[in-house]
Design goal:
By secondary structure, this protein is of the alpha/beta class. The chain is 42% helix and 13% strand.
Length: 373
């Protein structure tokens, strides 16, 4: 294949893309070779193209180059102006990501590349999450973006999806790190969310080449990117043995902050959070707990004065006896009625107002109070 056909890319991008196509070669090996041999990516690919590889170690690495993957990238780039290749030497490459032992040589980006170096906090958690957990993730995400912090997650169902959606409430960008190629969405049920993120000035990124489908071993690799490129990781609901805890542990190993939201001791999805807190993660119940630890000063609230007044009215409403009778766990309607000393039908009628205001949610089995309201 004639790599000069990659007219979208400058010579440096072309060279790094060719090196990255050797997917069986760890990035650290390329970076080590470049350092020890005093070569750059362009020189290596030129030597490879000319068949002039006298160094045996370099020749061994280059034999894994797959120019068919490079062609696949060219075709993907031609599909949309929102498709980008970000190399490890590019200004948009996340600076924190370079601290990995094997940082990706290439990132494939759909959407807003300028977000990649913005201050970020990861929000991760269980796929099989509770309604309350999803609401917590959504609330934290909305508050973080209101303070100028990009929310990064993994495009999974449950907590991840809720975090992305919460970040988009204020039309702020969010970053989804994918475990597939940029042209594949996993799970497929999040295809609409994937497109919404791009449309809302966010970015979907991956180190996997176009055409690569989901494999179990891809997701630990995705998790290391989430942990590395963010200032801290907030865990909302996780089992002890889960990919979420892998992300949290990777973050801790890299010296990043780890935050955990506590939950009911009888809930299996609280076990991971409680274990993290026992290991030294910071227990958080509000966004200011995060800003106490990370080096990002929150910006002023983005809303107008009339929005603040509406919040105050809601907060005043939240102090009354009926709302106090609803727990953050599922509370049966007969329990709520008994606590308020009123008939069940009356309690249900009055709770409708709170539901419309977003203070409670009706779910199978009763009601739950929503945090962050």
């Amino acid at each position: 294949m004639n790599t000069s056909n990659l007219t979208h890319l400058n010579p440096h991008q072309k060279a790094w893309l060719i090196l990255a196509s050797a997917v069986k070669v760890g990035a650290g090996k390329w970076l080590d070779a470049i350092d020890k041999l005093h070569l750059d990516a362009i020189e290596i690919t030129k030597m490879h193209g000319e068949g002039n590889l006298q160094n045996p170690k370099l020749a061994e690495l280059c034999q894994h180059i797959n120019l068919q993957l490079v062609l696949r990238v060219e075709q993907w780039l031609a599909q949309s102006r929102s498709h980008h290749v970000v190399t490890i030497t590019c200004e948009h490459y996340p600076r924190l990501l370079k601290q990995l032992k094997n940082p990706p040589l290439i990132l494939f980006v759909l959407g807003n590349v300028t977000l990649l170096n913005a201050p970020q906090v990861a929000i991760v958690g269980s796929r099989n999450s509770s309604f309350q957990g999803r609401d917590i993730a959504k609330g934290f995400a909305e508050q973080l973006v209101n303070h100028g912090v990009v929310v990064t997650s993994g495009l999974a169902t449950g907590i991840d999806a809720s975090a992305h959606k919460g970040a988009m409430i204020q039309n702020a960008g969010t970053i989804a790190v994918m475990g597939t190629g940029p042209d594949k969405v996993y799970p497929t049920k999040n295809t609409a969310l994937h497109q919404d993120i791009i449309s809302a000035n966010g970015a979907c990124i991956t180190e996997f080449f176009p055409g690569v489908t989901a494999n179990p071993w891809h997701f630990p690799r995705r998790n290391r990117i989430i942990a590395a490129m963010t200032l801290g990781t907030l865990v909302v609901e996780a089992k002890i043995k889960s990919g979420t805890l892998i992300t949290a542990n990777l973050a801790a190993d890299m010296g990043r902050e780890v935050f955990a939201v506590p939950g009911s001791i009888s809930h299996a999805y609280s076990e991971g959070c409680h274990w993290l807190i026992q290991q030294g993660a910071k227990l958080v119940t509000r966004v200011d707990d995060i800003f106490d630890e990370i080096a990002v000063q929150p910006y002023a609230y983005l809303g107008k004065d009339n929005n603040i007044s509406e919040k105050s009215e809601v907060n005043n409403l939240a102090t009354d006896k009926l709302l106090d009778s609803v727990d953050y766990d599922i509370t049966a309607i007969d329990v709520i009625a008994q606590r308020c000393n009123m008939p069940v039908q009356q309690a249900m009628a009055e709770l409708l107002e709170y539901e419309l205001r977003g203070l409670v949610a009706a779910i199978p089995g009763g009601y739950v109070k929503l945090r962050g309201k």
